[in-house]
Design goal:
The protein has 316 residues and is mainly alpha-helical. The protein is built from 14 helices and no strands.
């Protein structure tokens, strides 16, 4: 699985805005709703978070129509839906957020690029690649002009556009964007930053889908090492790196190397994200697929059943 600044993202992707001092002069009901929603979201109490974010939207709608707090409220709820895989529910919220911030800041402001990026991620998740590509290109152009060609946000936009190209099979277009994104990130963040690991994973995955396994493996290994050192051995992003390397080995028939990586990734995700998270379902499915390839069907079946049950609970 590749990361969409996601990655960074991954995470609730809602944009945060720095409002003028007078907005925060006194605590308002809106502040309380947002704070409560953020707390519930962190605790994975999605129903309570949704309730609080909806209340925040209702509260800010009483104010002037183009209040930046509306953008924060919409993005918070959309990000909550996105975290649960409810992309169709997130889409109209991100669209409204984009329209609002364009009116507040103007069409070429960096915060508009943030909003474009959020909506593009949701489009990509729904396989609406043409729409996602258009938004990613616009976000990249805004950021390059407003922030300069080597800004971290430019690296993110390059990465996100490359992901959309790869999803459409446009590998030749994706490669130079991934490489430029990696170079910017290494220069700004340093070679052992978790952000570098994300870029490495994405470039490695591009090589993998083209069956350039020799080029992909060292990138995946470096990404795993960076995340273990920077984030700790039980972080969800370590699970992602383990999963990516396991997929690479499994695709080459190297099941002995793949199996312990899948098992460790599953254990990390269950502990860090909870037993009914969508990423737990993904790990269960990946491990089950490997077991079937090894003719261990009796072991695969209960994993598949559990993954199916998780997904059924997440259906809109």
């Amino acid at each position: 699985m590749v990361t969409l600044n996601n990655t960074r993202f991954l995470l609730i992707v809602g944009s945060l805005f720095f409002l003028s001092a007078d907005v925060f002069a006194q605590k308002t009901p809106w502040d309380s709703y947002i704070k409560a929603g953020n707390k519930a979201s962190t605790e994975r109490n999605y129903a309570e978070a949704e309730k609080q974010y909806l209340a925040a939207i209702k509260e800010v709608e009483k104010l002037k129509p183009q209040d930046a707090r509306l953008v924060t409220s919409l993005d918070s709820l959309a990000g909550l839906y996105e975290e649960q895989g409810r992309y169709a529910a997130a889409e109209p919220l991100y669209k409204r957020s984009l329209a609002t911030i364009e009116k507040i800041r103007g069409p070429k402001h960096p915060e508009v690029a943030d909003s474009l990026n959020n909506l593009a991620i949701v489009y990509k998740a729904q396989k609406k690649y043409v729409e996602a590509e258009s938004l990613n290109k616009r976000a990249l152009a805004i950021r390059e002009k407003a922030l300069g060609p080597e800004h971290p946000d430019v690296a993110d936009s390059l990465n996100n556009l490359a992901i959309v190209y790869k999803a459409q099979g446009k590998y030749a277009a994706a490669a130079p964007l991934y490489k430029r994104s990696l170079a910017i990130t290494e220069k700004i963040r340093g070679p052992e930053s978790p952000d570098v690991a994300s870029s490495l994973n994405n470039l490695a995955n591009l090589y993998e889908v083209q069956k350039k396994y020799g080029a992909a493996e060292p990138l995946y290994k470096r990404a795993l090492a960076i995340r273990e050192k920077a984030l700790g051995p039980e972080h969800p992003d370590v699970a992602t790196a383990l999963n990516n390397l396991a997929v690479l080995y499994g695709g080459q028939g190297n099941y002995v190397k793949a199996e312990p990586l899948y098992k460790r990734a599953l254990a990390i995700r269950e502990k860090a994200l909870g037993p009914e998270h969508l990423k737990v379902a993904m790990s269960l499915e990946n491990y089950a697929s490997l077991l079937r390839a090894m003719n261990r069907h009796d072991e695969a079946a209960p994993l598949e059943a559990r993954a199916k049950a998780i997904r059924s609970k997440r259906s809109p």
